[in-house]
Amino acid sequence: MSTPVNGGVRKGLVLAIACAAVVLLTVDLTVLHLAIPKLTSDLDPSATQILWIADIYGFVLAGLLITMGSVGDRIGRKKLLLIGTVAFGAASLLTAYAPNAEMLMVARVLLGAAGATIMPSTLSILRNVFTDPKERTAAIGLWSGMSASGFVLGPIIGGALLNHFWWGSVFLINIPILLVLFIAALVFLPESSNPVPGRLDLLSVVLSTGGVIGLVYAVKEAAHEGIAEPAALGAGLAGLAAITLFVVRQTKLEHPLIDVRLFRRAAFTGAVTANMFAMFAMVAQSLIFAQYFQLVLGWSPLTAGLAGLPGAAASAIGGGALAAPMISAIGRAKTVGIGLGLGAIGLALYTTAGMESNYLMLVVAMVPVGIGFGMAFAVTGDTVLATVPKERAGSGAAISETAMEVGGALGIAVLGSALNSAYTKGVELPDGVPAPVVPVIEDSIAAAAHVAATLPAELAAQVMEAARHAFVDAFHVSALVAAGVMGLVALVSLATLRGVPKVIEDEQPGDESVQAYSSAH
């Protein structure tokens, strides 16, 4: 059941609300990155805690997206979005005033749970409002471009706030924005839901949530401690078992949380995979950039945030302006392949970053990354969502967004941990550093800066010089790994999306699965 929306102005307002909501959520994935140096000074977290504080929001959000997408289909997407908006505001307040690292992690868990109610609601509402295939592609393209832009806008907003206020202000700013969003959504958004939703299977909820979180946790631990680490091995096996049971159960239910048969299609699976790995690189880039700009180049938080603005603009252009016409001109597979290829080239160009500022070269790298990933997000997001009937739009949106959030969390876990490992191995400290603080300095560049503030001036300068050299080398390693991954995914996408039509017609109620293109694909 859905309330029809007629007229360009009303549709434009719906699109604006959906874009504003997703920007807020993606900003929250990255806004903390610039605050890490101040947060480290105030709360004194370990390097492992820093990673958890940064990525646990994405872990929880990813784990609950499938469930919340299905809940939205049942109770109404507008209703779920309104509930989530209130919950997100309360969790933001708790996060802003967290007194220690442990409480901050708990607050980030609550933020992730609240965010999981908002994100699938926005995309599924667009799926129901924009029924014309070309309008839908353009709307989802703009939504995707704004979503990608949020990863750059987060550091800009954070930088402006951190220049004047304490680190908690980057979350407190959410509250007035959420208030405006709540009122606008209440007035302008139409309600839509599945008229025959069926019963919500609680066992499927437990299996999907536990499986996603277990697998992501396992990868994080394996990247940091090694694959033989008991916690990593145990969590990985448990997560894999839960996901396997979840998939088997979905094939037996009359009303599953998601239609797992969609993954039999190479095009659908290829689009989801491209989404995941583009986010893998995007989020990790934001975290690494925040530390590079502040701790290597010595820029202020605001300057560091503004430095990423060309990337934000490029993402919006790639997703909102270029994706739709490129689909019409060369098709979906080539558009995604070119987009991910551009991203790989840009990531490789980050190896030109050094100890001294060369901002022009960084912009040269940022622009292809932004345009390329913006294009890829727009096309793959539309491809995934268009294959699902409107009545199950929440579940379809959840699949796409789960892949993106898992990819973002994995990017921080894998590339962030690889960065820390390369940094630790590369630090060559001068003589005279007190033995008790050596492991702390080798833990992370942020910890090195904290320790250096307590050392004599000459020794502190030598310590930071060594730390900066090690971090830049580690940055290069992470950038090349990310570029290699994106190049490989670009080739895979060209193969898996081959044959998908330029225009995917709207699914009709009662369709079993993807009817928009030949079952041969």
Keywords:
521 residues, mainly alpha, 18 helices, disordered C terminus
Global structural class = mainly alpha
General shape: globular
Q: What distance lies between the first and last C-alpha atoms, to the nearest angstrom?
A: 31 Å
Number of strands: 0
Structure overview:
With 521 residues, this protein is an all-alpha fold. Helices cover 77% and strands 0% of the residues. It is built from 18 helices and no strands. The two termini are 31 Å apart.
Question: What topology does this entry show?
Answer:
Layout: H1 8-43, H2 47-75, H3 77-96, H4 101-129, H5 133-162, H6 169-172, H7 174-188, H8 202-225, H9 230-252, H10 266-296, H11 301-307, H12 309-330, H13 332-349, H14 359-386, H15 393-426, H16 438-441, H17 445-452, H18 457-496
Q: Nutshell version of this structure?
A:
With 521 residues, the protein is an all-alpha fold.
